């Protein structure tokens, strides 16, 4: 039996705090590869790792932050959410301290205050994900 | 770039009610294919369908029930949870009315009272999933 399913990815809504536990905002990255624009940090799950392991690895690779997973936020799976192919994204809420640094697939990584999220620059369905987050 | 990720599946914890809204139990199926044993109804997500669509389709195929999704329950992704290959399972809590009928990959489908779940017969990590459910 040949099994064919969508790809599985993880994305992180990283709440960033300073050393005094003040909430500073969430992290968005500027993508190095198409589709170009801003996005939540994330990436594909490797065979042999759990989604939680993938999330922590991808957040470190793209933002240099060591995140702590707070909880599963939701799963996004509309077939057209990724213009390249069908990708199911498992989205986690997580927290971290310090300043992100864009690395790997991220040209830049910055903290955005919730009032300043540039929705028009977000790729995939990350605008919807963040609106769901703001409404949650 | 060749992308390789785990397979994506959905599984349903179906709470069954009678016509008077009395809770009767949850549905387990007897698997027709290896690994043999009891399991939550579920199956692989097809390319081109959302995980919610896959859940409703698989519940109908395996139990003949028309389920209503209540909420996302959790995601299970340990690499060794499926003895055949790495499968990420997205588990939904749902509800349905009536008597299940085992079809397709299910030799049988029955309603089990929560006090009578035969944990020793459950395959994959479905025993853990149901313990998490009972503790939730």
TrEMBL record, chains A, B:
Keyword GTP-binding: no
Name of the protein in question: Adp-ribose pyrophosphatase (Adp-ribose diphosphatase)(Adenosine diphosphoribose pyrophosphatase) (Adpr-ppase) (Adp-ribosephosphohydrolase)
Enzyme Commission number, as recorded: 3.6.1.13
Keywords linked to the UniProt accession: Hydrolase
Keyword Hydrolase among record annotations: yes
Residues making up the signal peptide according to the UniProt record: none
Biological source species: Sulfurihydrogenibium azorense (strain DSM 15241 / OCM 825 / Az-Fu1)
Family to which the UniProt record says this protein belongs: Belongs to the Nudix hydrolase family.
């Amino acid at each position: 039996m040949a099994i064919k399913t969508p790809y599985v990815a993880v994305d992180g809504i990283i709440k960033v705090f300073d050393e005094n536990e003040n909430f500073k905002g969430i992290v968005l990255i500027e993508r190095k590869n198409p589709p170009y624009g801003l996005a939540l940090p994330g990436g594909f799950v490797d065979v042999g790792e759990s989604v939680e392991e993938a999330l922590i690895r991808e957040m470190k690779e793209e933002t240099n932050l060591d995140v702590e997973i707070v909880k599963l936020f939701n799963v996004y799976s509309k077939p057209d959410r990724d213009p390249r192919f069908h990708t199911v994204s498992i989205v986690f809420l997580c927290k971290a301290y310090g300043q992100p640094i864009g690395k790997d697939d991220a040209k830049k990584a910055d903290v955005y205050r919730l009032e300043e999220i540039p929705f028009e620059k977000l790729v995939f369905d990350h605008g919807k994900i963040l609106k769901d987050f703001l409404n949650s």
